[in-house]
Each structure stands twice: as structure tokens, then as C-alpha cells.
């Protein structure tokens, strides 16, 4: 008898293996392969909806991806997939000409206290900042975008960390960032 846990792990393994071969598939074939895996789950399974959304997103169909990400989140998508869905949803919305909504989603995501995120979710904080910077730039908030991007970059530099972090903050209070 196979336990639910091992069935779940096997499904996750097959999903990961399929994503590793994304570039080996034509877009429609890749979406069909993800759809076949998703069909093994309940119709409203949030993980399956997320994977379908990501497949549409990664193959150039952001409008369909948005619908699927929103359904996955509405169905209670949790953990790392939830954070990925927010980033990917926001990116797709930005690409579809809705950067204001992207800013809203990513600002809310950025405001989640670190102690409420696990290590994998926390590891995506840089992605949240990067996509928020893009959305801010698209809404004409260039100084905020640059400050966010430079602030995220500062800790990664071998030198000049303090200086860059200071200059990033100063962008928000400098002449046209006041």
C-alpha cells in the first residue's frame, strides 16, 4: 500500500523533473505535460493550479497564467509556492500593463515579517525586491526602484556595502526623491 505522502513526493519529483526539461519541449507540449500531471490532482488543487500557471507563464501566455495563479492563491496555496505565485503573478501583471497592481502585490509580500517565512521563502526576498523595482520603474517611481535595487545589491558586494546602502537610502530623500 502506498502512502499519501509517498504519492505526493512522487508527484513533486515528476513535476521537478519536467521543469528541468522545459527547454526540451515545444511550448504547447510542455503545457500539455504539466496539464497531465495537474490532472492527477483535484480540480481545485492549489499546487496543480500553480504549476499550470507557471507553465503558461514560462511559455509566453501571461494572461492565462494570471488567471491560474489567482485561482491557486484563492484555493489556499501555501509556503514557497505561495511566495513564488505572488512574484510570478506580479511579474505577469506588470508585463500585461498593470504595474500598479504588481506594486501592490509585491509591497504586501515585502511587508511580511521575516519570522513568518521559512528559509526557502526568505531566500526569495531578493526576487520580491527585484520585481518590485521593475514595477516601480514602470509606474514612474524610478528613484524608489533604484533605491530598492541598490539596497538589495549592497549586502552582496565584497566592499562598499555601507556606502552603497547609504546612497540607496539617500535616493529616497534627495532632490526629486523627497
Automatic annotation (TrEMBL):
Highest taxon listed in the record's lineage: Bacteria
SUPFAM superfamilies cross-referenced by the UniProt entry: TPR-like
InterPro entries in the cross-refs: TPR-like_helical_dom_sf, TPR_5
Domain Tetratrico peptide repeat group: 46-171
Name the record gives this protein: Tetratricopeptide repeat protein
